[in-house]
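Attaching the record inline, Q. Sequence:
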Amino acid sequence: MEEDQISLKYIFRSFKRHWLTIVYFTCCFLVVGVVYAKLMNPPTYRSVGVLVTTNSSADTNPTITSIVTNEQAVAEVVYQNLKTEGVHHKNGSEVSLSEISSGISVESTTSNLQIQIVFTNSDETIVERVLNEVLDVSFEVVDSRFHNIYYPSIVSYASEPINIARSNVVIIGLSTVAGAIIGAVCTLVEETRQNSLYEINDIKKIDTNVFNIEYTKEKKHEISK
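Structure, as predicted:
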């Protein structure tokens, strides 16, 4: 119990003596966390819509899924429609074909006749608009190609966009804690190193001739070596 108290006192005394080291590492990692959160972890917004089809001759609709998952075919029509309607990013730039293609995905649902279409993008202002256009285009393509075979309908248009990126608060908090821990470890290592040096210097100061033996000048010279 006494050893634990001594150890705790030693640790807290070390932290108090080298508190600037802990603050330094904490601030450095805090800055790294902020930079990473701003530059390497941009927001990613996700919106979902549901397209349902009925087919009298089958219980599944793999053809419909393949049409929607062929992002390039759907995306090209969506791109032209958005361009005609003048839909742009909030900074004024044009919504590109590549980001439309890469943002479209299809997820399975509990029903084989339902297709859950998802669109993700870093610009919250265009997510709903683009996904609604994807739903409309997918509906038109299915209805025109498979008339009287599949009967598509849009169950729900784009949901409100949700940011699915990792929380910046969590990233900054974890980096700050990591900096404090590393600073504390460095403090204890440095304190231990200094104490070891002090002990070595103290040993060197001890007179090893405890028996008061008289040495000749030559013998003293050999001992000093």
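Helices lie at 2-17, 19-40, 62-69, 71-85, 97-103, 124-145, 168-205, 217-224. Strands lie at 45-55, 104-107, 114-121, 150-156, 162-163.

More tomorrow.
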